[in-house]
Amino acid sequence: MPRANISTVAIVSKPRSDRAAAVVPELLAWLDARKITARLDPETAAYAGAATSIARNDVADGAQLMIVLGGDGTLLSAARAAGGRDIPLFAVNLGNLGFLTSIKVDALYPQLERVLAGEFRTEQRHMLHCELWSGGKCTGEYEALNDVALAKAEIARIIDLEVQIDDRFMCVYKADGLIISTPTGSTAYSLSAGGPIVIPTVAALCVTPICPHMLTHRPVIVPESAVIKVTALSDDPTYFTVDGQVGELMARGDHVICRHSTQAVSLIQPPDLMFFDVLRQKLQWGGR
After folding, report:
1. Would strands 204-210 and 220-223 be described as parallel, antiparallel, or unpaired?
2. Pairwise pLDDT comparison (73 vs 100), residue with the higher score
3. Which CATH superfamily is domain 127-262 in?
4. Which residues are catalytic?
5. pLDDT > 60? residue 206
């Protein structure tokens, strides 16, 4: 991507962040000096003292690059807001762990210079498409970068969740919940629930139970082509969430259908940072 192709960037920022408040004015001045137009979501506009802003779902329109200032949560929101547009995400870590936001603040401008010069590497991360069905009707469609989770909504109760893979019965989980994750999401909620680490380039989905009643119920890796249907069988309400940020209550008989999405997110990565480097740095993976 040569420099001449980047005339407009979208900026998405973490809310209530002192670090973002300090970075945004400097970044806007840096872009302005290079005659690059910036489209600001409401949080970014507030840090800049701008009178107008653009809704996050529309901020990427007409932009050739999206700059994300925050942690992994901000990136997850930005990925869904990108909405399948062919736009790379330049994610700067202003959070704590920052597993997906791999660009450090002190490397912000050198890395941006590389991007403008066309000297950058991207990783394609496919998303998970999910449909929520209630009363025989599809009541919502969602895209997840990390995962979709179904969890109990009451204190000290387990729920029953029936799982079918490609229209074939798999099992009924009695558990606190269930996570369907992408390879990208394998290092998020699924990992905390005992799921495996899946390299992002592996064409697979992971089904991970949360605190299952039966010890034999273990995480299962299924092909990327699999269609996963999960039906709520409990009278107690089940809570459905997308990337831990968007949620709906499910009643008995409601179901969720998850499949590989046609949408993907293009993440700009530092040229010398590989997946196993991130595991060692962020998770102290392989340490003593």
Report:
1. antiparallel
2. 73
3. Probable inorganic polyphosphate/atp-NAD kinase; domain 2 (2.60.200.30)
4. 72
5. yes
